What does this fold into?
Amino acid sequence: MKQSEVKELSVEELGLKLAEAKKQHSDMKIAHSVTPLENPLQIRKARRIVARIATELTKRDNQ
It folds into this structure.
């Protein structure tokens, strides 16, 4: 998910996407600890998506 896509979403949608992205990230980390993922860079990508969404939510709260 790119920053331009994040900016287009409403606050409610961002909240839902954030919860979904956090769950996906934690699931990937757990799966990677048990059996290594084929592409461990997916974990980094998921973490950055969580950060993008959280940053946008914080930015909107401060406005």
User: Anything to note?
Assistant: The CA atoms of residues 12 and 46 lie 20 Å apart. The two ends are 23 Å apart (CA to CA). DSSP finds three helices and no strands in the chain. The chain has a mean pLDDT of 95.
